[in-house]
Write a structure and sequence with these properties.
162 residues, Arp2/3 complex 21 kDa subunit ARPC3, 7 helices
């Protein structure tokens, strides 16, 4: 893998981390979903590397916990979904906003999967108790993608020289 490509993915992963930390004071408002979708649209499967850098940075800051296990599959799952949809959706940012919103709505359920070994009842309780936050997460993801998706995508295309 060329050094420029490695450096690009590391830098974009660090941007994910900085964006997460910058908005950490706002519950369930994050730019990671928006950025990962845009990264996937522009850089394809390299977005998995960006997600890995992000998850590693989160681990280094916050330490190991069940939440981190969830991050290991939740963010790559979003990249996979975006990879599968990018050919069909193209630059339809209203539809991408819906995808991002649905991801925000499903985030708690996806996150609760890591709690299944504790017990299915615990995982379901964890998920249900967080539903109001998931709804807020969905609204914020939808709005952020609708407003910022196209400009961020175009900026990435320009920076990538595509």
């Amino acid at each position: 893998m060329p050094v420029v490509r490695i450096a690009r993915m590391a830098l974009l992963g660090a941007v994910l981390y900085v964006a997460q930390v910058a908005l950490a004071f706002l519950p369930n408002v994050e730019l990671v979903s928006l950025l990962l979708i845009c990264y996937t649209m522009v850089f394809g499967k390299d977005a998995f590397l960006c997600a890995a850098v992000f998850v590693l940075c989160e681990l280094l800051q916050w330490g190991f916990g069940v939440w981190w296990l969830s991050y290991l599959y939740v963010w790559p799952l979003l990249v996979l979904a975006a990879l599968l949809l990018r050919g069909a959706l193209g630059e339809e940012f209203l539809v991408w906003a819906v995808v991002s919103g649905v991801f925000g709505l499903c985030f708690g359920a996806l996150f609760a999967v890591a709690y299944l070994p504790v017990g299915p009842a615990y995982a379901v309780t964890y998920w249900v108790s967080g539903l109001p936050f998931d709804v807020w997460h969905a609204v914020c993801n939808f709005t952020l993608m609708l407003v910022l998706g196209k400009p961020v995508y175009r900026l990435l295309v320009r920076l990538a020289g595509i």
